[in-house]
Amino acid sequence: MGSQQFYECVRCDRDFRSLAAKEQHLRDSSRHNICQLCGVRDYEDADDLDDHLEDDHHFCTGCRQIFSSNWLLQQHNVDVHNLCVTCGRYFTSPSNLNNHKIIHAEKNIECAGCNRQFATNSAMVLHLEAGTCPSEADCQVVDDLATDCRQYPSYRCDDPKYDYECPSCETPFRYMSGLLQHIENGPCDESLDWHRPLAIFLRYIRTRI
């Protein structure tokens, strides 16, 4: 009788009596990381396999979904998994992602009262509220201007514990900077488009400070 042929798994130091048995082992063993889509190679670890699936197959490992292009996968990761495309980090919620994006934003919003630059309008108004602007504006000045602005009825809050509310979702805020941050982070449909109440307020304070 001829000698029995064995099929060796080098990584596990095991022999198998048939090629089918070895292939079954490669598929099932946690020590192996073979792409089930192309089977080209056995990756060193699960992270390497995930990188291959994402880069070569546009595959979302979390949703087990294949996309036709890397761009569509990226959009999926942004919309569903809160991916920051600038640094590649993932966040637990859209609001956390939006808060994070501020660190990447260019500081191109000039203070209404000095030459200091800010990444967001809410940061600029917070600077005014804090009384750190050379213009000597402070929280009271911001509140007075918010009241004087013709758009005040749109964001005035009737609850005595708060001064402002979102014109769209009516979430209340004590400070104007908080209301602006809420709008910038996008949890509701309100925006700072040119014709919207808070955009008009921001233009108004530039004529008064």
Automatic annotation (TrEMBL):
Molecular functions per Gene Ontology: DNA-binding transcription factor activity, RNA polymerase II-specific; RNA polymerase II transcription regulatory region sequence-specific DNA binding; zinc ion binding
The C2H2-type domain, residue ranges: 82-109
Keywords: Metal-binding, Repeat, Zinc, Zinc-finger
Keyword Transcription regulation appears in the UniProt entry: no
Cellular component aspect of the GO annotation: nucleus
Pfam families: zf-C2H2
PROSITE patterns: ZINC_FINGER_C2H2_1, ZINC_FINGER_C2H2_2
PANTHER family assigned: AZ2-RELATED, ZINC FINGER PROTEIN 142
UniProt-recorded name of the protein: C2H2-type domain-containing protein
